[in-house]
Amino acid sequence: MNTRWILILLLLSGMSVSVSRAESEDGAAEYRRYCSACHGESADGKGPAANALDPGPPALTGLRAKYGNPLSTELVVSVMGTTMPRAHGTSNMPVWGRNLADPDGDDTRAIETIWRIVHYLDSIQSP
């Protein structure tokens, strides 16, 4: 099953996943690896590469206002992306679905990685 159908099924299911502490820690590590250079260590939009981007990356601590509580599959879909530009942002934002997929085209790893990051972001949202 390709990523498009997996994501459609996730959206239709309204999937909400509880995450263990270990998975949350994995999400934090993956956030630091893939996101913090632009979005900052504290997800404030002030990473070391932020000044080189126009527009600059947004803070990620207020995502609940747009995506709900807990953060929804819509956010996973927007980050996965397949082409540029897309609703998530400008071409400054990498197409993570393609970048994280296995070389053989299996998107399962990409989806799981992005879910862990989304769940980590859910844990650091502003009230």
Topology (SSEs and partners):
Elements (H helix, E strand, L loop, with lengths): L2 H11 L7 H14 L1 H4 L24 H4 L5 H8 L15 H5 L7 H16 L4
Describe the structure.
It contains seven helices and no strands. Helices cover 49% and strands 0% of the residues. The protein has one domain (3-14, 25-123). With 127 residues, it is mainly alpha-helical.
Amino- and carboxy-terminal Cα gap = 37 Å
The total tally of domains equals 1
**Which regions are unreliable across 5 or more consecutive residues at pLDDT < 50?**
none
Gyration radius from CA atoms, angstroms: 14 Å
- Mean of the pLDDT scores? 76
Instruction: Note the overall shape.
Output: globular
**Strand tally:** 0
Beta-strand share of residues: under 5%
What composes the largest sheet? none
Helix percent reads 40-55%
Along the chain, the helix and strand elements come as HHHHHHH
Structural class computed from helices and strand pairing: mainly alpha
Number of helices: 7
